[in-house]
Amino acid sequence: MNPLKATALDAVAPQTNDERFEAMLNDVRTRARQGEFDRQRHISQDVIDAFKFHGIYRSLVPKRFGGDEASPGDFCRLIERISQADGSAGWVASFGMSPVYLAALPLSTIAQVYADGPDVVFAGGIFPPQPAERVEGASRSMVAGSIPVAPWAPRCWGSVSRRGMATSSICRVWP
Fold it and tell me: Where are the domains positioned within the chain?
């Protein structure tokens, strides 16, 4: 099986100590050295899919939402292994630490984020903070003004998830 052709649904738990994970690391290393990611200015979608397959993005997700609830140390060691293959790929894989950002959200909102499974990949800018005001009759606060788009997240344009949930400063990438 080509480790870059698997889907996240094929993964049940992190698969990082097997031949397929090593093959993925070697493939990422080779492609990075050939300049693929630099030319594209982003990591290829099949690499993101491989990270999902190997459970990178579900690593820190709580078990109650289908994740693996790995320790921060285990997650950091995993990111270090990927970063040794390619620093940019390691950085993209590190988006798996998103549960730390999400922890401040209401539990019902977190449940919506993981409603389709724990392999959620997103990136977004959290700075500069934007003012919000409560609008009468609205169930949520409204953010006024414009929020600069992070130049490192060129595929991060929407502010509403496919479930219609407002994501404000969180923008889903690579659904």
Answer: 8-100
Chain length of the chain: 175
pLDDT in tens, 151-161: 444 433 333 33
Residue with tokens 């922890």: 103
CATH number for the domain running over 8-100: 1.10.540.10
Q: According to DSSP H, which parts of 4-159 are helical?
A: 19-33, 36-40, 45-53, 72-85, 87-93, 98-102, 107-113
> What predicted TM-score, i.e. pTM, was given to this entire model?
0.67
What does the pLDDT average to over 64-84?
93
Q: Would you give the DSSP letter of residue 159?
A: S
The bridge status of strand 132-134 relative to strand 141-143 is antiparallel
Residue type, 4: L
Q: Do residues 71 and 63 touch, judged by C-beta distance below 8 A?
A: no
Residue 160 φ/ψ, nearest 5 degrees: -130, 130
Among residues 44, 58, 53, the alpha carbon closest in space to that of 92 is found at 44
